[in-house]
Amino acid sequence: MGRFTAALDLLGRAPSSFLSTADSNEGQDWEELEAGDNRPDAGSYDYWQKRAATYDQDIFRSSDEDHEGIIHGEIDAAARRAEKARELTKGDDGSHAVSKLVAVDAGCGPGLWLDALTKRFGRVVGVDQSPNLLEKAKVDHEHLLQSKHSKVELQTAADLGQPCKSEYAADGQELCGPSVPGTTHSADLVASFNVLLSPNKQARENILRREVEMLRPEPGSTLLLLVPSAESYRAVRKLYRKLGGVESGLGKYADYLYDHPDEEADNVFRVFALTKHYSKKEACSMVEAAGLECDKVLSFPMRWRFVFPFASDEASFLGRFIFVQNGSELSHSYLYLSIYLSIYLSNIYIYIHIYIYIGKEVVSISSHPRLENWSGACQCSAKAKPLCALYLLFATDCEP
Question: Methyltransferase domain spans which residues (predicted)?
Fold first, then answer.
């Protein structure tokens, strides 16, 4: 939700969780925040209203990082599932089927994914709780709003995490109101990128319930989520400390120097704002509670500069997505949950990557070291064999 409500990017925009004091535009340094403990909720209205002014500088833009087309591929797959389930016919250019498909970008923020959605869905509704972010979306995507070939609507929506008030659908089903006008049981795809970020568990559950209720209650509808990884945060923090913290030359990140067990028991971390992160098990439990079933895990690469600005753009690490299929009899939908900062790489692997860049001698690597078949056999690509072998010693899901 622009706000994301929160997190895996705050709906499409996860706050840049690793800003140094020099990079922060908040006007309050890390030491003050640490002493005063006045961290905002990463899913709050005030937080995203304020962040809108520096969004392009401070916030992770998931749409710019999908170099391998993973999210784009899932958007396309969602459209194809809906076309098949609804038995929609296509013209020679496929336009007839596309015109009947509906997508809701729940927590659209400045509209990072509107262009991609309009290529496969005839009607796209972007909703966000932040008027400031929606104004940015209108400016950045004026071409879509004025296009005769796509139908794009932007709506200011009340916080999707607020307490539910009973409403009823046309079929008598009780809903978590207030619902967003015109979205109940209407969407073939609900995309929600970095929205489930609030440290408030009930708020997250309310958001997820409202998003599920936006889906068409029949086979073929899809829910696509992007959320942050707890494993990733802990691994990066451990690496930062191991390399010497501030003395490492990577920058000043006070949030990596302190533990807060009372918060971290719930995988809530301080990335300027209090931001909910997810373990794989926790993410699965969340969606299963909503009537969904975890199916498989896929990888999603991210550049190191989103963690340490001094890292090379050529250095990347693995995130992951969790694909969840709804097994309930009432609603056959799909959930694709992306954990945008999940790395599951060994510290040694990361250590080598960083020092290839910041050492006195820059070592040239012709391609990004990658792991292949992450969710399956956990095999290494040929070019990544030396480093991957180290990784496998630490991996929790793979045998060396």
Answer: 104-143
Give domain status of residue 336, yes or no. Answer: yes
How is 140-196 classified by DSSP, letter by letter?
A: HTHHHHT-SS-EEEEEE---TTSPPEEEE-TT--EEEESPPTT-TTTBSEEEEES-T
- Label the pairing between strands 268-271 and 273-276: antiparallel
pLDDT tens column, 161-173:
999 999 998 888 8
CA–CA separation, 131 and 45 (whole Å): 9
CATH of the domain at 95: 3.40.50.150
| Residue of 376, 62, 17, 64 whose CA lies nearest to 232 | 17
* Full-model pTM: 0.70
If 0-12 CB within 10 Å is exposed, 13-18 middle and 19+ buried, where does residue 316 land? buried
| Residue 306 banded pLDDT, cuts 50, 70, 90 | low
Closest C-alpha among 157, 158, 178 to residue 167: 178
Question: What are the respective helix, strand and coil percentages of the chain, to the nearest 5?
Answer: 35, 20, 45
Q: Where are the alpha helices (DSSP H) in the chain?
A: 30-36, 45-51, 55-58, 70-85, 95-100, 114-118, 131-140, 142-145, 201-214, 230-242, 261-264, 280-289, 347-358, 385-394
| Rounded Cα–Cα distance for residues 10 and 44 (Å) | 10
pLDDT tens figures, 12-37: 222 233 322 222 333 333 334 444 46
CA 6 to chain centre: 9
- Residue 307 within any structural domain of the chain: yes
Q: Are 254 and 240 in contact (CB under 8 A)?
A: no
The dihedral built from the CA positions of residue 38, 43, 47 and 53, taken in this order, carries a sign that is: positive
How far, in Å, CA of 324 to CA of 337, rounded?
Answer: 7
Distance in angstroms (rounded) separating the CA atoms of residues 347 and 368 = 17
End-to-end CA distance of the chain: 40
- The number of domains in the chain is 1
In a domain, 62, yes or no: yes
Cα separation values, 296 from 29, 182, 224, 299, 311, Å? 41, 32, 14, 10, 30
Q: Cα separation of 397 and 365, whole Å?
A: 27
Q: Are 243 and 354 in contact (CB under 8 A)?
A: yes
Using one digit for the tens of pLDDT, what is the confidence trace for 127-168? 999 999 999 999 999 999 988 777 999 999 888 999 999 999
Contact, 301 vs 370, CB < 8 A? yes
> 273 lies in which domain range?
14-345
C-alpha 324/C-alpha 326 separation (Å) is 7
